[in-house]
Specification:
alpha+beta
């Protein structure tokens, strides 16, 4: 669960470090053994994450977030996270 909290904090930091924005869409569902949440902001930041507990202590998480940099480049990160760490795939486009 600690790992999930860290990921959530990172995503929210990305969202609000860029600039102030209004929330267009937001949802969250948190249960004892699984969760999912997502949001989309007016400044083109979007994030989605879901995870489930496998066994008693192992969280398997997957998600994605995307944003536009100050110089106009679109960045999309898809990732998984498990006992072996955080596994991102980063895509850049103009």
């Amino acid at each position: 669960m600690k790992f999930t909290i860290v990921l959530l904090a990172c995503l929210f930091a990305i969202a609000f470090a860029n600039e102030e924005a209004d929330v267009i869409k937001e949802f969250r569902e948190v249960n004892k053994e699984d969760f999912k949440y997502g949001y989309e902001l007016t400044n083109k930041i979007r994030a989605f994450q879901e995870g489930h507990l496998e066994g008693e202590k192992t969280w398997l998480v997957k998600g994605e977030y995307e944003f536009v940099t100050k110089d106009g480049k679109h960045v999309k990160v898809t990732y998984t996270a498990d006992d072996y760490g955080y596994h991102p795939k980063v895509e850049h486009s103009e």
